[in-house]
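Teaching note: in complex prediction, the entire set of molecules is handled at once rather than each chain in isolation. The prompt given to students was simply: 'Predict the structure of this complex.' The entities are:
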Amino acid sequence: MNLPTSKLCKLLKSKTLPRDFYLQDTRVVARELLGKVLYFDSPQGPMAGVISETEAYLGVKDKACHSYNGRKTERVKPMYLVGGHSYVYRIYGMYWCLNVVTRGTDDPQAVLIRGVKPLIGEETMRQNRNHFRLSDGPGKLCQAFGLSREQNAWDFTKSKLRICEAVGAHKFKVLKTPRIGIDYAEEWVDKKLRYLGIAL
DNA sequence: CGCCGGATTCCG
DNA sequence: GGAATCCGGCGA
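The expected output is the structure of the full assembly:
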């Protein structure tokens, strides 16, 4: 498929996922986000990537989740917005992570976007990151796209930050593994809530 | 109010 | 394996 970038952007935006998508079971959303397109109408120009890796965070009962046990602090508040909003937070003092909030306003769950394959704006992504490997980790992805606090609590269904239906079918299989970097989460450590899209 | 440590990444 | 580097979260 060889559309000019402007047409591809228009096509993607016309296929923006509806609210209902984000209200499903968070594990279903994490799984179904694989192959979908993360689109950002950024100040540097349009950027997009095909989502290849996600993790589900299952809310108040999940010891790895920021909203565990009903925590509702300033940082975590976007998780209490209706499904389909962004939750961007700082990690290790220097990186940002992008989440997709799921479920309803009384059920603070989310999906962490851990990896995308560049689709639009790859040159800009390479400028934003000083390394060859692009966006195969949550911090790298935000750096490549130029995402930070400013994009926190945005609505993926109608803002400059969107998630859209895939254009053209890429075949892949899904691998489930435990989540990364949550050693403290006790009985939640080993649950297979990380979803990897493996290209066929 | 002070301290601890993290849903990470890079370099050696 | 360790550093970089900020601020949320929690105990005092």
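Point out the following to students. DSSP finds five helices and eight strands in chain A. Strands of chain A lie at 37-42, 45-57, 86-91, 95-102, 109-120, 161-164, 172-177, 194-199.
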